[in-house]
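Whiteboard transcription, Tuesday session. T.W. wrote the C-alpha cells on the left side:
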C-alpha cells in the first residue's frame, strides 16, 4: 500500500514539473515593448467576446455593444440599437497602453464614443477622454472565451 502512495506521489511531482517546463509562452503581435510587470495584457485571459447593454438617456433605446478581442490584437465591434436600424460593424487593431492595462480600438469612428477600455478580470470598462471609467452601465462583461490555437 505504501509503495502505491509513493508511486502516486512521484507521478504527481513529475507531472507538475512537466507542466511548468512546457508553460505556454506568448509573443506580442505588435512591435511594442512588452512590460515585464504583471498587467492585464500578460496576466489575464483577455481574448474573448464582451457584450453589454447601455441606455444613453431616459428616452433613448437600449443599445447592445459587442466587442470581440482576438489573440492577434485585432477586434470586431458591433453595435445594435433598439430601433431596428442597421447594425454598426467595425474591425481594426487593438493598441495597448505602455502599462498594459488599457486598450484603444483603432479604426473605430468618433461617432462610437471614445474607443478606450480598461481591461479587467472578465470585463471591459469604457473610459472617457481623460482615462476615467464611465458609469457602471458602460461595463461590458465577458460572455465567451476563445481557445488559443
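and on the right, the sequence the group agreed on:
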Amino acid at each position: 500500500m505504501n509503495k502505491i502512495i509513493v508511486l502516486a506521489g512521484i507521478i504527481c511531482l513529475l507531472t507538475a514539473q512537466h507542466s511548468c517546463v512546457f508553460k505556454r509562452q506568448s509573443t506580442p503581435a505588435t512591435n511594442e515593448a512588452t512590460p515585464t510587470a504583471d498587467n492585464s495584457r500578460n496576466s489575464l485571459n483577455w481574448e474573448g467576446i464582451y457584450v453589454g447593454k447601455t441606455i444613453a438617456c431616459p428616452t433613448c433605446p437600449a443599445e447592445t455593444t459587442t466587442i470581440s478581442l482576438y489573440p492577434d490584437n485585432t477586434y470586431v465591434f458591433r453595435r445594435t440599437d433598439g430601433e431596428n436600424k442597421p447594425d454598426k460593424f467595425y474591425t481594426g487593431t487593438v493598441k495597448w497602453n505602455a502599462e498594459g492595462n488599457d486598450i484603444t480600438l483603432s479604426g473605430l469612428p468618433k461617432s462610437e464614443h471614445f474607443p478606450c477600455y480598461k481591461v479587467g478580470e472578465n470585463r471591459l470598462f469604457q473610459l472617457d477622454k481623460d482615462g476615467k471609467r464611465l458609469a457602471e452601465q458602460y461595463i461590458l462583461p465577458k460572455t465567451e472565451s476563445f481557445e488559443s490555437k
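Someone added at the bottom: Residues 43-145 form a domain with the Lipocalin fold (CATH 2.40.128.640).
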